[in-house]
Structures are given as C-alpha cells and as structure tokens.
Amino acid sequence: MPFTLNVNGMAHEVDAEPETPLLWVLRDNIGLTGTKFGCGIAQCGVCTVHIDGQPVRACSTTAASAVGREITTIEGLSDDNSHPVQQAWIEDTVPQCGYCQSGQIMSAAALLSRTPDPSDSEIDTAMAGNLCRCGTYLRIRRAIHRAAEIARG
Amino acid sequence: MEMKLSRRTLIRTMAGAGGGLLLGFRIPGAFAAAVAPKPWTTPTGGEEINAWLAIDVDGTVTIRVPHTEQGQGALTSVSMMIAEELDVPWDSVQAVFADMNRHVNEGEEYIVTTTHGSQLVRQQHPHIMQAGASARERLKAAAARAWGVERSEVVAKQGMLSARGHSAGYAEFAGAAAEIALDREPAIKPPGEWWLLGRPTPRLDAPAKVNGSAHFTIDTRLEGMVYAAVQSCPVPWGGLRSYDFDAIRDRVGVLAAIELKAVDGRTSTSDMQNGVAVVADTWYRAKTALDLMPIEWDYGPEGDVSNATQAAHAGRLLEEPGEVSNEVGGDVLGMIAASERTLAAEYHRPWETHARMEPINATVSVTDARVDVWSPAQNQAAPLAVVAEHLGRDTRDVFVHTGFLGGAFGGNGGGSTAVTRQAAEISRQVGRPVQVIWTREEDIMQDKQRPPVHTRLTAALGDNGLPEAFFSRAVWFTHRGVERIGPATADYSIGTMPYLVPNRRHERHNVAAHIPTATHRAPGANQNGFIIEQFVDEMALAGGWDPLEWRIEMTQGLERWQRVLLKLKEVSGFTTDLPRGEGMGVAIVEDHGSICGACATVSVSRSGQLSVEKVVLVMNSGYMINPRNGAEQIEGSVCWELSHALYGGLTLADGRFVNSNFDTYNLMRMHQMPEVEVHFALSQDGWWGGMGEPGGPPTPPAVANAIYFATGKRIRSTPINKHDLNWS
What we know:
The complex is a heterodimer. Chain A is α+β, with helices and mostly antiparallel strands. Helices cover 36% and strands 14% of the residues of chain A. The termini of chain A are far apart. Chain A has a five-stranded mixed sheet, with helices on both faces. In chain A, helix 2 packs across helix 5. Chain A folds into two domains: 3-76, Ubiquitin-like (UB roll), CATH 3.10.20; 84-152, [2Fe-2S]-binding domain (DNA polymerase, domain 1, Orthogonal Bundle), CATH 1.10.150. In chain B, 27% of the residues lie in helices and 23% in strands. Chain B contains 17 helices and 29 strands. In chain B, strands 12-13-10-20-17-18-19 form a seven-stranded mixed sheet.
C-alpha cells in the first residue's frame, strides 16, 4: 500500500512495506543516498536524520512512523553547504573517509538547534551514538563549537 | 581560517568509463551538478598533457588520481605533488579518479595503483612529481617553440608562461605540450625548493563530504539494478548443505536465490566462500527474505575451533623452538639460563576486525557489450582483473568506476575482495545490474581479520641493569593460504627492534588458521608494539632505569630514534613521580619507515575506572608534504589503535566469531577520545617514511605503561577494559 513521506520539504509517494526502516526507503525508494547504512541496529549513527527536528536513527525507525512528519536528511540541510555545521566542517576539514559524516553532521545540527552554545560534555553526550572509525572526534567537537560561533554571527 | 568554496574545489567523484556510456548512472538530490561524472578523455574540455593531468581553457587543472580515497588524503596528496611541480595555483586544481580500464589496457601509465602500506607519498612521490615536472617542461618547450626562444628562457610559474615579453596561460600551450617529446625528463625538485609541499593544506574532498554528495560505492544506482543480501558459511570454508528458496519465493520483490560456491584450492582474499544470496528489488526485501530462508550449513572440520583451543595450541608451541628470524650475538638461551638476573613475561593480542564504517559492498553490471564494476578494493585495478577472470571477459570490456571508500584500513587490499566476485556472479546469473551489500554482521564475520599473537619474552640483565641477552618467541595464527608469514606481521618491532642488546634472538611459529587474515592498519607493529614496548618498561624498571632514559640509552647513535626520543622528552613532561592513580607512559615504534614516539597520561580511580587523558606524539617520517593531513592521520591512528587496545577483541567459538555488530564489538566513541598533541621531528636526510599508520602502534603500550605507574598492574593482553584496574 503506497504511502507518502515528506522529505526535505517534498512529498514522495513510496511503495514499500510500512515496517521498512526509513533508511532503506530514503536510499532505495526515494534515492537519497547521503544517509548511510552502517549497522542496522542504531549503534553507529551513520543513518541519523531529523524527524520534526529531532535526531533519529533511520535504520531503526519504520517508514510508517514518519508519515505526516517533517523528515530532513543531509541533502536537505542546505542547498549550498551554508549551514553553520557544514561551514565549520569544511573550515576544519573534519571528514576523512567521510562515510559517517552525514550522521555526525545531522546529530550536531540537531544538538545546536536545541542547545545553541553546548559545552564539551553536552557535545559528548549528544554525539555518543555516532561512531567514526577514522577517529575525527576531536575535530568534530571543535567544529561544533565553531558552528555555534558561526550561527551566532 | 576562511575558505572560499568554488566550483573547482568540489571533487568530481568519478571519472566516466573510457569513452563509453555510463549505464544510467545518476546521483540523487540537489548536488548532481557538482559531482556529475565526466569522461576522463575530456575533462571540462581541457587538453591532456599526460595521463595524470589535463588543463582547461579557463586554467582549471584536472589531476587524475589512480589511488583510492579511503580517508588518508590521496586525492589531496597526489594533487599537491603534481601542482608543486607543474607550478599552478592550488585553487585551480581539481581531482578526479583515474580510469583503471585505461591503466590496465594501455601500458599501466600510473605505475602504481594500489593504496596500502602508507606508501603513496613516501614511495611514489618520485614518479608522481615527475609527471608534474614533465608536463611543466613540455609546456615551456611548446611556448619556446611558438615564441622562438630557448626553453630555458621560459619561466613557468603559477599557471603562467613568460619569456622576453611574451606571456600566456598554460592552457594556451597544453595541446602543443602534449605532442612534445623531451630529450631528457626533468629531475624532481629537492625539498628546499618546495612552495606548496610542506604547507598545511586542507583536503580537497571535504565539501563533497558534508552534504551527502560524495559518491561511495554503496551509493551506486543504475537503471534496472537489483539488490542482493548474502550469507556465507559462518565457519569460513565450511559448506552450504541446503537452502529452501520455496519458503521465501513468494515474498514481495524477491527475484531469486543464488548459490555462491568456493572453488577447491582457491583461498585468496578475492575468492568466494560457500554461501547463498537472495536477490530482490530492494536490499531490505532481499535481506529480510534471506533472514527468513532456512539454511543448513556443513561447518566442516574447523567447527570446534575457539579462542581457548587456539590459546592451548599457542601454549604448546611456546615450549617448542620456532623459526629464527633474527639472531645477534651468542647463545642467548644459554646466557639467560645461566643468569641470576632475569625476567620473563607472556603477552597476547586477540583477533580484531576492520569494521570500516561502510559495510562491504560491490555493484556489477554484466552485459554482452561490457561489464561495469564498483568495488571497495584499495587497488582499483584489482577488481578489473578479478571480474574479467571470473567472467572470462577481455579486460578491455571491463570498466571499474572508483568511488570514495568508507574506510578500508588494509581490509580491502590484497587483490580486491570476495564481494566483487559475488556481485559479478549474481549479475551474470540474473542478467541485471546487482548491488551486493553485506550486513554489518556478515561484514564482521566474513572480514579478513587481524591475526592474533601469543608472545613470550625473556631477558637477562647485566650489572648496569641493561639487558645482556633478549629472547622472544611468538605464535601467530594466520590464514592457511599464507604459507609462510612475512616479517610485516611476525617480526616488526620485536625482531627488528632498534635497541642495542648485544645478544638477542627472535623466533616465530605460524599456525595455519581457517580464518582469512589481512593487513590491519599498521600490521605487525600494532600487535608487537604493545608487546615489546611494555616489556621494555619491564626490563628498564627491573634494571633500575627510567623508561625514557633507558630508550635513549639503548638507541645511542641511531639519529632517527634519538631525534624522536629527545623531542618527546622535551615536549611531554614525562615523569614517573606522580601520585597513585595517575600515570604517564612512553613508547616508541617504527612502522612503515617512520618512527613515532608517544607519551600517554592516564588516571585510574581506586575502583579501576580508567581515563586516558592525553597522548603526545612525536613523528619522524623523514619528510612531510602536508602537516595538516599528517596530524589528522596521526590523530586517527591513535583512535584506531586505542579502540582495539581498550575495547576490542573478537571471540572465536565453534569455528566462528561471536561478535556480530557494534553492540558486541566496541569501538572508541567521542567521549572516550583523549586529547592528542602531535609534534614532528623530521630527519630530512633523504629517507621518507609513511604517515597513515605509524601513529597507532606506540599509543597502546604508552597507555599500558602509564596504567602500570598509576596502579602497579602490568596489562599484558587486550582489551584493557577486561582487566580489573582497581588499586588501594
């Protein structure tokens, strides 16, 4: 039974089992591949997206539960890398392999929207669900502080 | 620092297939324009001077990188080396991945395409820089011919050619330069003449990696593509007894089940295990159906192997003489037996897995006309050969499309990966493009693992407290296809240790295991470094020496080591005089030609709660082309090795790995990452070391040595978090 998802401000009609994880609907049905697959059990955070502004692990969120809500993926953060988190990430060249960074950025953006000037420990808590195998953690933390500065203008 | 984004700094993630159509390749979302693939033959309409570079009319220089970008910075490093010699403004440079079909079939112009062993810059800079220098001299020659002057009169600088009042951009002479044959190829610049190399330079690929547009192999989408989920026998090299496709065939979207077969005698890293794939119109449908399909396995003779059986095996072999790989001086064992001042210890490092963040995957499209391949191989020429061989096709008909790799760390080396062959086989059978994705569970279970080692060390000390005789015997478990374990894993850091012990002997045993093994960021040094650098502290303390002074004393006359140790002494503030519960530890390990020292500071609560607070590292890689990327690689290496040393370790039971996902294989998270401070102490004496790996190995032993000073407990196996560190 097709259903409709609102992703990055656009309505997408999707033909998938309603219990399908949002991750796979985004990647395979809608074609938004910026959101990554990492573990499938909400342990690594590479699939992090926003639903109504809250960070969720798309691999463990059913598509049906997102119907009627605002879904934002990495592709919807800005049109031109202008989101403060993206600016800070580029400035400090945070990514190495880059595979986890969509999830890191979405977690960071959600943190900053509710906590505009986070402390180190608030950052650590918010980012604890996002693994990075390249070990970019120190730059991520620094870039979140910088993004907070950019957002303040 | 301000960074201006321009179209040019965006990476083109893929070069197109050699002159052919790209099978409906598409990149979803709003960023298609920024990353749209371009055929390598006409990069932005520019002129190719040689295989490595082309220059556009607007001055844009497109550099074709034959290596993979797996986070180590290949796109930026190769581009910097060519831009240095070509002498063009850095912001006019864009990087693309080179065409492997051209490389394989047209004379291997890129010379080396493999990306492993921290070797790109240290070993390949001569031919890469030479390609840039050659292009520059050809441009000068073309201008000289047009202007009627000598080539030596032409100045090539920052993309402009000039001589005797003439002046033109490189683009004007790019076409003519391509036709020039030089009498003699120019020499590359000595480091003293560098204008770009050696400067902190941001990575080129960062902008594409913050908006979802960077194309990883798992992001490949083709018209008509189907997906496959696979399971191979959980016990490697076991058999598939039966599977019941009828149980799932009516599920929505399910198309086929396909048996994957190991071939007797074919046990290389690109060969398939026995297993079965379910193919469906989406990956989730394929994976769900595979989970539900009844499968019976024949686990074979290795179905009872476990950590315990391997430990018992190792225990027996530690009592038997092994192969001698290094021997200096006299009768080491006799001296130790006769000495009254000896010490001995046994160390162990367990199995570890790569767990790159991008699960193993590949996409292959087999048609009568051509075969297209997206593979996670660290050497992109390898899957071309593997797929051609598997399908019996001419290599000219096989096109490999390089995407970004979501990590690799040695696990995707060794001539491609089995997943590429799986995808080729399934596409051949279903007649459609197929993307195979391993679940995280499959990725961990079927990875080519880092081998475990059990090592016994003994030493006899002389009157001055320094070792007179040193003996080590190691037992390794490596894949049975590896007939004789090489020095890279078995001997580095112990057999090849620099310490000037007058009598020493290193022996090794290699047990042929059924578990496939592979290199794993800083192979050998990552296990052996932990072992030897703690035993050094044991020897130093038993002999009444300060551990840092011991290392300085025992490397007298070895300039590269002394440079690191003296710098470490200067910047780390290392001391053994700290209150209980606090500790500092040092270690120094050579890996991939570089020597890296580390000083770790830890605190341990009375109840045993460990906090690694800071790691100071001093790197001597001889030279360095980009301090920014260098520091990033060292930071990353610290995280990599501490992940395994503190939290890692795989458990083998019933012939297979028990750990299945990130809930049972723990990796370092942000709040566990110590502060990292990186210093460089470069010898700059003609020798080059690597940068991507050597930062890791000295870190765990420095931490363990610090734990000893904090708690009095010597931690001789990992993961460290399995040890009770409480003290009173």
